[in-house]
Structure formats: C-alpha cells, structure tokens
Amino acid sequence: MLAAYAARIDAENPLNGLETGDRPDPEPSAGWTTITVKATALNHHDVWSLRGVGLPADRLPMILGCDAAGIDSDGNEVVVHGVIGDANAGGGDETLDPRRSLLSERYQGTFAERVAVPKGNLLPKPDALSFEEAACLPTAYLTAYRMLFDKSGAQPGATILVQGASGGVATALILLGRAAGYRVWATSRSEAKREAALKLGADAAFETGARLPERVDVVMETVGQATWSHSVRSLKPGGRIVISGATSGDIPPAELTRIFFTQLSVVGSTMGTRDQLGRLLRFCEQTGTRPLIDRVLPLADAAAGFAAMIDGAHTGKIVFVP
Ligand SMILES: NC(=O)c1ccc[n+]([C@@H]2O[C@H](COP(=O)([O-])OP(=O)(O)OC[C@H]3O[C@@H](n4cnc5c(N)ncnc54)[C@H](OP(=O)(O)O)[C@@H]3O)[C@@H](O)[C@H]2O)c1
Q1: What is the pLDDT of residue 74?
Q2: What is the rounded average pLDDT of the residues 190-210?
Q3: Which of 223, 271, 314 to mutate to test the pocket of ligand 1 (most atoms within 8 A of CB)?
Q4: From atom 21 of ligand 1, which residue's Cα is the shortest distance away?
Q5: Hey, which of 47, 162, 163, 169 would you mutate to test ligand 1's pocket, going by the most ligand atoms within 8 Å of its Cβ?
Q6: Tens digit of pLDDT for each residue in 204-231?
Q7: pLDDT in the model for residue 76
Q8: Is the peptide bond prior to 118 cis by the omega test (within 30 degrees of 0)?
Q9: What pLDDT does residue 115 have?
Q10: What are the two backbone dihedrals, phi and then psi, of residue 205, each rounded to the nearest 5 degrees?
C-alpha cells in the first residue's frame, strides 16, 4: 500500500529521511482492527519524528501520522483516537499511562491507505464533518480542547493569549476558544498571519513579543523558547501558562523570579483522552466550528506538505488524502 514514512533520521534536514512509496499492509493483533484511511492530517509531531525526537532509528522504517478518519471493517465512518495507552494504568486517563505512545511512535502511523488501531480507539464520525475536517481533530484540536477546557481553569469571558497564531494547535485554540466565549488574543511573526487570525475570530492580533494593552488570564504556549519570556510577562498575577509544545526550542530563560513573585502556574498538557475526543466531536457539531484547513494534498505529495510546515508557510491544517 502507499505510505509516507520515515526511512532515516536527519536532525538537521528532516525532509532527507521522508520517503513515499510501498509499505506492507497492516496485520492487526488481537483487539486491533484495520481502518481504510480516507483522510489524515500533518502535525509538527511528524517533523519532530523525522528529526529523531521520540522516534529512535531502531524503529525505522516507520509510517508517520497520528491523525485519521476513515472506514472500519464493518463499513462505518470513524475517527481514530491516536493515543495508544491504558486508561487504568493512568488512573483513568490514558494520556497518563507511563507506557502510552502516539500512532507512529511505536506502532505504524496513519499516512497510509490502511492503518491498524485498537478497536477501542474508534469513534463514530459525525455526518456533519467531512473526512478531511474530521482528520484534523484527533491531535491538534484535541490538544487545544484539553488545554482550554481541562487545563486552563479559565471561565468563558476570560482573556486568553495564543502564541504563534498560524499553527495547527494555535488556530484550533482560536476557533474553539472563540466558540466557547473567551476573549482570544493571538501573536504571530507575520502581518498576513495576524490578519488571518483576526479573520478566524481572534479579538486582537499582535506582533510576536509586542507589549499588550493589558495583562491576560491565561497564555497558551506551543512556540516555546521564542515566546516564553513574553508569555511570563503577559500574565496577570496568579495567571497560568498552559504549554503543550516548544517548536522554537525548549530551553528558554526560566524566568523563575517572575513566576514565584507574581504567583504564576505553569501547566503541561498533552493530547487528550478518548472521552475528550468524543466531546470535541460533539462541540464541533453543536457550535458549527470547523477546523481551518490550509490545503489538501494527495498522500503521494506528502513531501510538499512537510516542506510547507518546516518553512512555516501554512495557516491551519495540512491534510493528505491517500
Ligand atoms: N503535547 C501535545 O500533545 C502536542 C500536540 C500537538 C502539538 N504539539 C506541539 O505543539 C507545537 C505546535 O504544533 P503544530 O502541529 O500546531 O505546529 P505548526 O502547525 O507547525 O505551528 C508552529 C507554530 O509555531 C510558531 N513558531 C514557530 N517558530 C517560531 C518562532 N521562532 N517564533 C515565533 N513563533 C514561532 C508559528 O507561529 P507564527 O508563524 O504564526 O508566528 C506556528 O504557530 C509543536 O512543537 C508540536 O510538537 C504538542
């Protein structure tokens, strides 16, 4: 079957390790089943994998991709939850299972015509969502959902700052945050992307690092090093940073004095549970929220999608269709 996979690790030039070509069909083990993939979406996680972050060379070749919407073996339209973990081992939360992984880390991923997944990881795809839209939800939108509604502690009406407005998680934070009644501010390095954030529903958009008109209740961080000090400075006393990524690097100045003196909280967040994915699907149905899709490409052209993400040339999700 056709697949896009990591054939080599190259930390400096991740595209060097990406190949698109024939891979063996999945052979599901007990309790697993095979899904025919109708659409799948690119995440920065896939770029990290090609750089060797979370994907050691001894697991190659590895089909990349954490997201999928498709058809199960009974002909049902489904969305795949990409977290492979045992909720019991994580105190009721599979993301806290010490052995949990994402599809494409230990098990072959979704950038393929077919993928094997645990039967318990399937959810019905709402009719209201296309396969392309549904494929955007299990990683970027689920991460944003958990950051907003589980980890932020913020009530609707609170002001939330989203660092790096154009990314997959960032656009999800703007869309879901606005639909839930938060005042959403965003930053971006480019004027065009700030305009796109406003069109998407952000109440205001600022240049990366700019002084804000007032301090905010919560900052949503996925950028990391390039924006961390600004995030710390932008919070009200007692405010909270929710962090789920560090695209620009993960060793910023810690800003310890500011953190204790203004009594800030720093909260980590990763993916979400199957139940949260179910509620996210319903949230999209109920509010009419739809993921922002930057482009849809044939899976055979996956390299072009990766190149756009590495260059930061996208706003929203890049979707592949096998
Ligand atoms: N913990 C989890 O479960 C989880 C889930 C999903 C993603 N993540 C992580 O979250 C991060 C974002 O993922 P994604 O898929 O949304 O990636 P993406 O679509 O490639 O977005 C990258 C974002 O980073 C910003 N950015 C990059 N370099 C920057 C710099 N030097 N200065 C300022 N902004 C910069 C971009 O903002 P502008 O271009 O608009 O300025 C853009 O918003 C990744 O590191 C990913 O690994 C984690």
Answers
A1: 97
A2: 97
A3: 223
A4: 167
A5: 169
A6: 999 999 999 999 999 999 999 999 999 9
A7: 98
A8: no
A9: 98
A10: -135, 135
Q: What is the rounded average pLDDT of the residues 25-49?
A: 98
pLDDT, averaged across the chain:
98
CA distances 109 to 66, 82, 97, 155, Å, are 6, 9, 20, 36
How far apart are the C-alpha atoms of 309 and 15, rounded to whole Å? 11
The residue whose CA has the least distance to atom 17 of ligand 1 is: 44
Average pLDDT over residues 136-161: 98
Look at ligand 1, atom 9, and give the residue with the nearest C-alpha: 245
The number of the ligand 1 atom at minimal distance from the alpha carbon of 140 is 6
Measured in whole angstroms, the distance separating CA 322 from the mean position of its chain's CA atoms is 20
CA 247 to ligand 1 center in whole angstroms: 5
| Pairing outcome for strands 68-71 and 32-41 | antiparallel
CB–CB of 105/55 below 8 Å?
yes
Sheet of 2-6: strand order equals: 18-22, 2-6, 62-63
Residue 163 CA to ligand 1 center (angstroms) comes to: 9
The whole-angstrom separation of Cα 157 and Cα 142 is 21
CA dihedral over 42, 44, 49, 50, signed as positive or negative: positive
Task: Return the sign of the alpha-carbon dihedral for residues 300, 306, 312, 315.
Answer: positive
The set of protein residues with a Cβ atom below 6 angstroms from ligand 1 is: 43-45, 48, 139-140, 143, 164-170, 188-189, 193, 208, 222-223, 226-227, 244-248, 270-271, 309, 312
pLDDT digits (tens, 9 = 90+) for 240-268: 999 999 999 999 999 999 999 999 999 99
Encoded amino acid at 81, one letter: H
Residue with tokens 């930390």: 11
